[in-house]
Amino acid sequence: MRSGADLPTTSWAVLGMLSHAQELSGYDLKKWADWSLQFFYWSPSFSQIYAELKRLEKHGYVTSRTVLNEDGIRGKRMYAITAEGREAVSHWVNHSPVEAPVLKHSVMLRAWLGHLAEPDRLRSILTEHIDNAETLRRRAEADAEGSHANPDWAFPTAVLRWCVRHYEAEREFAKDLLADLDNLQKQSRKTQGRTKSRSSKSTRTTKP
């Protein structure tokens, strides 16, 4: 099997979505990405999707045609994966290196810089993150349940269940960090208390 073009992962994601259907429009791809891919990889804009489709068509992995409305006025553009495109994305799935995921977590970064944060504000940031994780967990769970009846979506459904467990864990990790912050604050108050006590004793012993 040929290795195909050296494309970014987002191209393979779009090409992979096209492998699930005979034809899809850019709107369809956006809807499918929001239904599934956004939970673990990518929430694309329409401009990003069309840029990837243009790239894939240039490599011969995708064909497109314009579907006219009933009145003959130009309608939407439909895209289909070619045999070469299916072969290339299959090669990527089966033979590309297994890369360790790179975690870019802005909430975690802000907690890492907690010495610069106001304690109450840091707690509210983590609390909001917990709420967001729970919202995403529920949405992923609902999408997984909604696609369960369609055998063509067996693998995406299994990945959505993985996403459910991921957001459950993310929620619990953030709760653990909140508990750690409480312990840090308690330790800080104890340290400050001991420091004040030593300072007070030192003041009394040095009086004439």
Description:
The protein starts with 8 loop residues before the first helix and ends with a helix. The longest helix is centred in the last third of the chain and has 52 residues, at 154-205. Strand 2 and strand 3 form a beta hairpin. A 3-stranded antiparallel beta sheet has the order 1-3-2. It has helices at 9-18, 26-35, 46-58, 83-95, 106-112, 119-147, 154-205, and strands at 24-25, 62-68, 74-81. It is built from 7 helices and 3 strands. The chain has 208 residues and is mostly helical. The protein is elongated, with a radius of gyration of 26 Å. Residues 184-208 are annotated as: Disordered. Pfam families: PadR. Residues 14-89 form the Transcription regulator PadR N-terminal domain. It comes from Nocardia albiluteola. This is PadR family transcriptional regulator.
Question: What labels describe this entry?
Answer:
single chain, 208 residues, mainly alpha, three-stranded antiparallel β-sheet, Tscrpt_reg_PadR_N, WH_DNA-bd_sf, PadR family transcriptional regulator, WH-like_DNA-bd_sf
